[in-house]
Amino acid sequence: MQRNRGRILEVDDIAKExxxxxxxxxxxxPNRSALIEAVYRTEVEKLAAAERKFxxxxxxxxxxxxxxxxxxxxxxxxxxxxxxLNRFVGGPAKLxxxxxxxxxxxIDALVKHxxxxxxxxxxxxxxxxxxALIGVSNVASTPDWQQSAKRLVDILLVGSRxxx
Length: 164
Prior knowledge:
This protein has two domains: 1-30; 31-159, Tetracycline Repressor, domain 2 (Orthogonal Bundle).
């Protein structure tokens, strides 16, 4: 009984935050797991869509930088919902597997454009840059980690420039 009451209050809080009624929430998401999974998938879709938008509207190096900064925000969101992903969705492996291709495809395209424009060294493997970015973002040991990670994006990009 107490557990059910707690779950009702959690759902009510989510509905209030979204400015919708609890009934609306449950019509679209049959349970909290479905809601959390939808939040995660939406964040990944934003990353993929941002790659295309940035590539069309910015210079290649600017597009790569903007996407990398957005990726830091994505990591922050993922860290916030990680416990819920593990608890409600049954672990992140299945979700991450599906999103990995979208994230990898986005950074691959942006790095290739930056290489083609001469802004990034030709021997840079996009996955190495992504791995470095994940490492930078996953050291959330201080409250200002996100600002630090965003500063490190510029350091990663400077280190990725062609050698003269």
